[in-house]
């Protein structure tokens, strides 16, 4: 008696399903290809939010919207003029001079160190790079970086232009996109959007202030102590100030190294003054400038910066903090129904204990 044929499984995929898969693949490919543009748009939105305060300030005085936008435009043009007319030529010249003097810098550093010991061995191993003995290839590479610098400047100008367009049409675009949401989510968005905008705006304004203070302070200290490339190191300190904790060490090391070429005393003074400013910034300037909007622990900042940098590079590390700081708003408005009943209350209680001054101010 013949054995029965084993049962066969047949999988049928409709043309509609195949079409949906192809559309999903196409959308994924478009998202990857358009990611650089998305980053520029996102940064432009972050820049437009604090500028929107100027527009609102003009409105409260009875002025038309275009007056506020004009003020913002003049402000951005002034920043571009300062960068193009003063900072960029100075920084470019100091970078070229520093690369040319790398062999001299190496010799000066080694002269100021003890004849032997772990410190000299460590510094000597760091200075064994071929660039310190023959900076020619590095100088040629620096000249070749002109194309990359031009691309970065172009992206910067695109961000400024997009930010101005968001100031002009942002409200209409927001209302247009809001119409896609269900009615219950529109109500939540109407509550959350202003709060999130305040947090992001507070961060952007605060970061601009702290970066400016850090850069100017570093430049003045280094200039008074006659440290080479003071303007370059000052700009480096201001730019890296956007990376909490990590940025301080990255800007501190080259400043001390170049100060050591002047004298050990100068290096010691730079070390003390940099550390003193870091303490003042963390415990006095930042709380005053940021207010109580960004209540992030140091551990949260480090993890957020590493995650943002891993996903989006430098831009990701910069923009991740205001996004993380907006989480309590999202939790309270959107996530609360899906959490334990006392989760939000417990989180607010923890924040109240950590930041009692915010409760007193409110």
What is the compact description of this entry?
With 362 residues, this protein is mostly helical.
Description:
The protein is mainly α and 362 residues long. The chain has a domain of 143 residues. 82% of the residues lie in helices and 0% in strands. It has 16 helices and no strands. The chain is globular. The C terminus is likely disordered.
Separation of termini? 89 Å
Largest sheet: none
Number of contiguous helices: 16
Strand content: under 5%
**Helix-and-strand structural type:** mainly alpha
Q: Give a count of the beta strands, DSSP E runs of length 2 or more.
A: 0
Mean pLDDT: 80
Order of helices and strands: HHHHHHHHHHHHHHHH
Low-confidence stretches: 358-362
Radius of gyration: 27 Å
| Fraction of residues in H or I helices | over 70%
Outline:
globular
Keyphrases for this structure?
16 helices, globular, mainly alpha, 0% strand, single chain, 362 residues, disordered C terminus
Itemize the secondary structure elements and their pairings.
Elements (H helix, E strand, L loop, with lengths): L14 H19 L1 H26 L4 H36 L1 H11 L5 H9 L3 H4 L2 H9 L1 H33 L4 H42 L5 H11 L5 H15 L3 H27 L7 H28 L1 H9 L7 H12 L1 H6 L1
Helix pairs in contact: 2-3, 2-8, 2-9, 3-8, 9-10, 9-12, 9-13, 9-14, 10-11, 11-12
């Amino acid at each position: 008696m013949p054995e029965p044929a084993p049962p066969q499984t047949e999988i049928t995929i409709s043309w509609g399903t195949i079409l949906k898969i192809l559309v999903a693949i196409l959308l994924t490919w478009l998202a990857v290809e358009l990611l650089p543009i998305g980053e520029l748009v996102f940064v432009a939105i972050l820049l437009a939010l604090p500028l929107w305060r100027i527009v609102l300030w003009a409105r409260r005085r009875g002025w038309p919207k275009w007056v506020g936008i004009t003020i913002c435009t003049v402000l951005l043009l002034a920043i571009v003029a300062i960068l193009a007319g003063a900072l960029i030529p100075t920084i470019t010249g100091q970078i070229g001079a520093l690369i040319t003097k790398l062999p001299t810098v190496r010799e000066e550093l080694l002269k100021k160190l003890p004849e032997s010991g772990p410190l000299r061995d460590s510094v000597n191993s760091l200075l064994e790079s071929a660039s310190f003995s023959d900076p020619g290839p590095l100088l040629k590479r620096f000249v070749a970086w002109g194309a990359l610098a031009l691309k970065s400047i172009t992206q910067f100008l695109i961000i400024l232009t997009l930010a101005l367009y968001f100031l002009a049409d942002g409200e209409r675009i927001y209302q247009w996109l809001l119409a896609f949401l269900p009615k219950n989510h529109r109500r939540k968005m109407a509550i959350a959007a202003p709060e999130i905008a305040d947090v992001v705006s507070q961060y952007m304004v605060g970061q601009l202030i702290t970066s400016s203070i850090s850069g100017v302070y570093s430049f003045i200290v280094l200039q008074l102590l006659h440290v080479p490339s003071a303007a370059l190191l000052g700009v480096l300190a201001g730019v890296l100030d956007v990376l909490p904790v990590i940025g301080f060490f990255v800007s501190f090391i080259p400043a001390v190294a170049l100060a050591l070429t002047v004298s050990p005393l100068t290096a010691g003074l730079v070390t003390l003054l940099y550390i003193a400013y870091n303490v003042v910034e963390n415990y006095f300037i930042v709380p005053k400038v940021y207010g109580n909007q960004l209540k992030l622990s140091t551990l949260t900042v480090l993890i957020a910066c590493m995650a943002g940098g891993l996903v989006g590079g430098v831009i990701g590390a910069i923009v991740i903090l205001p996004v993380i700081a907006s989480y309590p708003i999202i939790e309270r408005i959107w996530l609360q129904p899906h959490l334990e009943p006392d989760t939000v209350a417990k989180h607010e209680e923890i924040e109240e204990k950590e930041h009692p001054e915010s409760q007193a101010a409110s």
